[in-house]
Amino acid sequence: MQNGSFQLPVKSTLIHYSITGNGKPLLICPVTWGVDGHRWTMLDELAKNFTLIRLDPRGTGKSGDVKEKSEYGIPTLVEDIEALRFHLNIEQWNVMGQSAGGWTALEYALAHQEHVNKLIVVCSAPTGQFHKGTFRDPSHPLFPQYDRLSKEIRSLPHEERVKRFNRAIYQYDVQTDEARKAIEKIFANADFSAKRNQYFISTELQRYNVTERLYEITVPALVIGGVHDVHVSPSWSEMMMQNISGARLKMMEHSGHFPWLDEPEIFFDTVIKFLKT
Fold first, then answer.
1. What's the DSSP call for residue 59?
2. pTM of the predicted model over 0.90
3. Of 13, 54, 152, 237, which residue is most buried, by most CB within 10 angstroms?
4. Cα separation of the two ends of the chain
5. Which of 113, 60, 137 has the alpha carbon at shortest distance from 219?
6. How many helices (H) and strands (E) in the chain?
């Protein structure tokens, strides 16, 4: 498959996507809360073994704008992903998503399971109501820091508020100095879609819930959780493993929300072995 950066016309907009590496196709599902699908996923190590396919959700990165507010939702993103698969003439691909990208991966797998070879969900949850046991939970030891930060940035314009918040809050979740530097670098230069972020908070968090449908997933699945994840409780990884038939679970003992930063060797070895088995 030709490597490079491309744009695909989809209905009323353009979807930017990129192809990197060689081997069986591996779709990296983007998060949907306002950042593009390339800056967020630092997974180029996988391009040594697979063809990585990434795309920017509408209204982010190099993709076109949205025409209607509902296009910010995961269902539209799932349609765009399926249009891209059809365009690339891929019968089946491996599908992977982390955090809210895991939401995208799960919804895509449920909608188009016949085109999914294997599924990987990293540090994610099957519902938008996942805050218990995270820093947003008043009983969590990090809640005072979260509450203080939220008050400090409350008066900022929305886009700047999102950038400042994420730049600070994701530092809670990495376990090494090298990982902290990587997170700082990402958010120092990241662009955000304020409108997409507002839609995610006001609509997607309430809409998204595939908890009762996990049993429908029958493709080989790997669930990866971080023991020290304070964004999404690792208990959700255990729950998904128990409810997806035949799913495997890998708990990363020294990782937070970004196991490829905290324990890169173990993370990439686990993913590569699962996809190649």
1. T
2. yes
3. 237
4. 22
5. 113
6. 10, 8
